[in-house]
Amino acid sequence: MSLPPRLFDRSLLAHRLDRAAGGFTQAHFLRERAVEDLIETLSAINRQFDVALDMAARDGAFGRAIAGTPVADKIDMLIEGELSERLSAQQSGSARLVMDEEALPFGDDSLNLVVNALGLHTVNDLPGVLVQVRRALKPDGLFIGSLFGGETLTELRACLMEAELEVRGGYGPRIAPFAESPDLIDLLKRTGFSMPVVDSDRVSVSYEHPLRLMADLRLMGESNILLKRPRKGLNRAILEKASALYFGRHADAEGRITATFEIITLSGWKAHDSQQKPLRPGSAKMRLADALGVKEGKL
C-alpha cells in the first residue's frame, strides 16, 4: 500500500513554532476566533468528558479560554499536546505533552474528547490523523477541530504568483493548498465518524500593507513549510510588484488592503449504540403524503 504524499516539512514547522513563541501575543486573533468556535460547539453539548486532549495547544489558548466557564466544568482533565517543545515548556496548569499530531501516543478508547484549533492544515496525512483520533476516542467520544479552508489568503496567493511570474518568468508554491468544506464532510464519514458536521467561518482582516500581513503570518508560525517550497526567496522587485497588485485590487476607501481567512470547524462522534441511527431505506411506517395531510397525485 502506497504511503500518502508528504507536503509539509514537520521539523521546519516545529522550528517555526519555536520562533513564533513570542509572537502569539501580537498575532493570535485568528487562533482566538477558532477557539471561540470550538467552545461554542462544546457549550451546546450536555456531556461530561473525563479526559480531553488539545492536539495542537500552541500557546494554550483553548485551556485559557475555557478557564472559569461552564465548559471547563465539563472537562475533568485536559492534556495539552504540542509539536514544539519550547512552547510546551512555557505553559503550566494543564498536563503538557510534546507530541506530533501525525503520531498520537494514545491507546484505543482512551480519550473522551479531542480538540484541535488550527493545527490540521499542516499535517501530511489528514485522513490518517482522523483515523488515529477516532481510535483514541472512547465510544461516544467527540472530536472537534478546525483548519484553514480554501478561501484563505486567495488575494495574497494570486498577487504573489503574478508578481513572481512577471519578475522571474516562473513561480513556486508560496502558500499551501487548503481543504474545502464538502470534502471534509466526506472525509469524516470515510474515517468512521458518526454525525459529522462542518461549518465555515469567513474572516476578513484589514491591513495597512501586504508586508504587514506577511509579518503576521510569520508571527503566527504560518509561513511556508512546503517540502517543495522555492529555494529562492522573494526579492524586493517581487514584493513591490505584489504589493502594487494587492493595493490595486483589494484596497478599501481608506487605502487598506483586505486579507481573507476561512476557518472551517469540523466535528464528529465515535460510534456508540446509544446514538441515533438513520432508518433503513423502505422501513418507514407512514407515507410522506399521509404525514403531510395531502393527497397523492400523478405528475
Automatic annotation (TrEMBL):
Q: Where is the signal peptide?
A: none
Q: What GO biological process, any one, is recorded here?
A: methylation
Pfam hit, one: Methyltransf_11
Keyword set, alphabetical order? Methyltransferase, Transferase
Listed InterPro entries: Malonyl-ACP_OMT (IPR050602), Methyltransf_11 (IPR013216), SAM-dependent_MTases_sf (IPR029063)
| Coiled-coil boundaries | none
Where would I find the Methyltransferase type domain in this sequence? 91-144
Please give the Gene Ontology molecular function terms for this protein: S-adenosylmethionine-dependent methyltransferase activity
Protein name (record)? Methyltransferase domain-containing protein
Identify the taxonomic lineage of the organism of origin. Answer: Bacteria, Pseudomonadati, Pseudomonadota, Alphaproteobacteria, Caulobacterales
